[in-house]
Write a structure and sequence with these properties.
Structural class of chain B: alpha+beta
Distance between the termini of chain A: 97 Å
Oligomer: heterodimer
Order of helices and strands of chain A: HHHHEHEEHEEHEE
Number of strands of chain A: 7
Largest sheet of chain A: 5 strands, mixed
Strand content of chain A: 5-15%
Radius of gyration of chain B: 16 Å
Largest interface: A-B, 15 and 11 residues
Number of helices of chain A: 7
Shape of chain A: rod-shaped
Order of helices and strands of chain B: HHHHHEEHEE
Structural class of chain A: alpha+beta
Helix content of chain A: 55-70%
Strand content of chain B: 15-25%
Distance between the termini of chain B: 35 Å
Strand order of the largest sheet of chain B: 1-2-4-3
Chain lengths: 320, 178
């Protein structure tokens, strides 16, 4: 091979190397593009997997709630029967004792001073028994109200919309939640008595309102400690316009920090301690209000002042 | 058309005619790609056609024969790049796998690859009919691939090629003699 041929060969090889280099660059760019699209596809897959997981957990939670609902309804029913005969017997004892007292009062004064009267301590009985019966009757009535509220509160199977009195639902929710709320807060209700009935899923709506009241009480509990006060205040108000029924649930708890405003309706988002909240309540509430009732749920909150949730439910489908 | 066809074609030209010939071919046909090919990309089929026309002009070998020769070369590139496809007991199994397995795997890697379609029939135990269909009309390439795969599997075959008038459809009747 002469020198000229050698130079030609070298030139050809250089050109070949240059082509190979450019081809490699193209391959690398394609590889990068492929890797990027794979990454994106993976992200989308993860996102949809997470969504599916959340939906699954929500379903499990809803089923648990439904089971709990069935159980509560059963317990309420079981309590109701003995409660009724306790009530009947108390009324009977009250009547009988009143008659007994009328008889005693009509007795001869000398007879009232006998040893028999003294041993039985009839005067004491006549003073204390009516008080005991009255207190028992009051307790019975309170129990009856709670059981009635519980029974009306749990309808896990009501899949159909029915005509609902929102005020009634709120009053029941306040009774049912009273045991949890009363240690931390007073509850004030300003319910518009002209509020129109709406068509709604009763059981689920009750769940939403109860959930908001309980959340408010948790917020107030924390704020009470911080402000060293005994009780906070939950104010519940109803109103309406041409299209919507409005429910305001306001508390003077610590408020929701602004940085988490966008997250509070996310499934499993919670600021509560482990075991106190599952982070499902508001996600489920949003689903119930927006998806099932075509309404809206929103809130305004200021740290250190409190939070107001507003539920708007359409009243237009009453005749559906 | 997939880049692997072009990288293989350039290898073949270099091997059979030398680097200088390939360089001249690029310069004279002036392809849009600049003769820079990578197996992961796709290129215009017109570039391959231009190369074949150039080759035909320079060597006077008919274009169908050039495509057939390239098909035979390509088979060995496939065998060396994708050995898993060749891990089968015999030629017949390999050929039957082309549509039902190999093309499916190729499409997983290159979803836009414009592959031909094969429809099979087996009139008897020793005969396989592969009906080729492709808008690229490269049945001679398929013929070269089939012939060379018989060499790869060390089997003797008798191949009858019956294309339609425009070459978009072709019936390959393969008789297995060994």
């Amino acid at each position: 091979m002469n020198v000229q041929n050698l130079h030609r060969e070298i030139d050809l090889l250089k050109k070949k190397v240059e082509r190979e280099r450019k081809a490699r660059k193209i391959s690398e760019e394609l590889l990068e593009e492929k890797a990027r699209s794979l990454y994106q596809a993976n992200q989308e897959l993860e996102k949809s997997l997470e969504k599916q997981r959340d939906q699954q957990m929500m379903m499990i939670h809803s089923e648990k709630m439904a089971s709990l609902g069935v159980m509560s309804a059963g317990i309420a029913h079981e309590i109701n029967t003995p409660l009724q005969f306790i009530g009947d017997n108390l009324v009977f004892l009250d009547d009988m004792f009143r008659e007994f007292m009328v008889c005693v009062r009509s007795l001869n004064e000398d007879l009232k001073k006998t040893k028999f009267f003294e041993i039985l301590d009839v005067n004491y009985l006549m003073e204390e028994v009516p008080v005991s019966i009255t207190e028992s009757l009051e307790g019975y009535e309170r129990l009856q109200t709670i059981v009635k509220a519980m029974k009306s509160f749990v309808h896990p199977d009501d899949e159909k919309k029915s005509t609902i009195d929102i005020n009634q639902i709120i009053e029941n929710a306040v009774i049912v939640s009273n045991n949890q709320v009363k240690f931390f807060s007073e509850v004030e209700m300003t319910l518009n008595r002209n509020l129109p009935d709406i068509m709604a899923f009763e059981g689920e709506l009750k769940q939403v309102i109860l959930n908001l009241i309980i959340n408010s009480s948790h917020a107030i509990k924390e704020e009470n400690k911080r402000k060293n006060r005994d009780l906070g205040l939950i104010s519940i108000k109803t109103s309406f316009d041409d299209n919507y029924v409005h429910i305001f649930i306001k508390d003077n708890g610590g408020g929701i920090p602004e940085k988490i405003h966008k997250k509070i309706f996310n499934p499993f988002f919670t600021t509560k301690d482990v075991g106190v909240g599952t982070g499902q309540g508001l996600a489920i509430s949003k689903n119930i209000i927006e998806k099932k009732h075509k309404g809206s749920i929103s809130f305004k909150s200021h740290e250190g002042v409190g939070t107001t949730f507003l539920i708007k439910l359409p009243r237009g489908d009453k005749n559906e | 058309m997939k880049g692997l066809v072009f990288t293989s074609f350039s290898e073949m030209i270099e091997a059979k005619f030398g680097l200088e010939f390939w360089d001249q071919m690029i310069e004279e046909t002036n392809p849009m790609s600049g003769g820079i090919y990578t197996s992961a990309a796709s290129y215009e089929m017109s570039e391959l056609v231009a190369y074949l026309v150039y080759l035909n002009k320079k060597t006077e070998i008919p274009i169908p024969d050039l495509i057939y020769t390239f098909g035979r070369f390509l088979l060995n590139v496939f065998a060396s790049n994708f050995p898993d496809f060749f891990q089968v007991k015999d030629l017949k199994t390999f050929l039957k796998n082309v549509e039902s397995y190999i093309h499916i795997e190729v499409l997983k890697l290159y979803p836009t690859a414009g592959l031909p379609h094969f429809y099979y029939s087996e009139p008897d135990e020793n005969t396989l009919i592969m009906n080729y269909r492709s808008s690229k009309k490269l049945y001679k390439l398929a013929e070269g691939l089939i012939e060379e795969s018989a060499v790869y599997f060390k089997e003797e075959i008798e191949l009858n090629t019956k294309p339609n008038s425009d070459g978009s459809v072709c019936k390959f009747t393969i008789r297995f003699l060994s």
